[in-house]
Design brief:
By secondary structure, this protein is α+β, with helices and mostly antiparallel strands. It is about 20% helix and about 25% strand. The protein contains three helices and eight strands. It has helices spanning about 5-15, 50-65, 90-95; strands at about 15-25, 30-35, 75, 100-105, 125-135, 135-140, 160-165, 170-175. The strands form two sheets. A five-stranded antiparallel β-sheet has the order 7-6-5-4-8, with no helix packed on it. A three-stranded mixed β-sheet has the order 1-2-3. Helix 1 (about 5-15) runs antiparallel to helix 2. The longest helix has 18 residues, at about 50-65. The radius of gyration is 21 Å and the shape is elongated.
């Protein structure tokens, strides 16, 4: 049985999704797992725990030993803050989230969503909010810098126009969730939670 098939069957057999397999020249085998997601699933987002990683590690060690696969060190982890987005299901799951997108080729002069502005002709990297757009996807962003903590922002100030970039999955080199960390601590719970 092929190496990737062993890992895929073991991870999915335990009820997890296989996000990524990374095998380095030094013998490190890094497996990234996530909890399965179904569209329209109510409730809060669940996360992979240390116990989940331990369970998959134990089972993978056994399966890889039985198949005679060589490696020096095995690491099983969660996708983390900057989780890679691989397929249509990942894009559906994280619609409305801020993502970092890298295109295979520069975009050229793309008109913005709400004004006659454009994007640099050699730009490949973008950060914006992920949205479904017809048969494809788009990210929407503003080039206005974020206000600094404690900075007063005039209510009369006109915000910078939003820009949008439409794309299909085969045009992407890489897409990841943007790793945005909030150091302000817990926020008050919303009504109805």
């Amino acid at each position: 049985m092929a190496f990737q098939d062993i890992v895929t069957q073991t991870v999915t057999g335990l009820g997890y999704d296989l996000v990524e397999i990374d095998r380095s020249a030094g013998g490190l085998l890094r497996i990234t797992i996530d909890l399965p997601w179904t569209p329209g699933q109510p409730g809060a987002e669940q996360f992979v725990t240390v116990e989940d990683c331990e369970k998959v590690t134990r089972q993978l060690q056994f399966a890889l030993e039985v198949e005679g696969t060589e490696y020096r060190r095995l690491e099983v982890s969660s996708p983390g803050l900057d989780r890679p987005l691989r397929g249509e299901k990942d894009f559906e799951r994280f619609t409305g989230q801020v993502v970092d997108v890298t295109l295979k080729a520069p975009v050229g002069a793309i008109a913005s969503a709400s004004s006659g502005g454009g994007v640099s002709a050699n730009r490949k990297k973008f950060r914006g909010t992920l949205e479904k757009a017809g048969e494809g996807w788009q990210i929407v962003w503003s080039d206005e810098p974020a206000a600094k903590p404690g900075q007063r922002v005039s209510k009369k100030r006109v915000p910078a126009p939003l820009q949008a970039l439409g794309f299909k999955l085969d045009e992407l080199k890489e897409a990841r969730l943007a790793s945005i960390v909030d150091f302000k601590g817990r926020r008050p719970r919303e009504l109805g939670e």
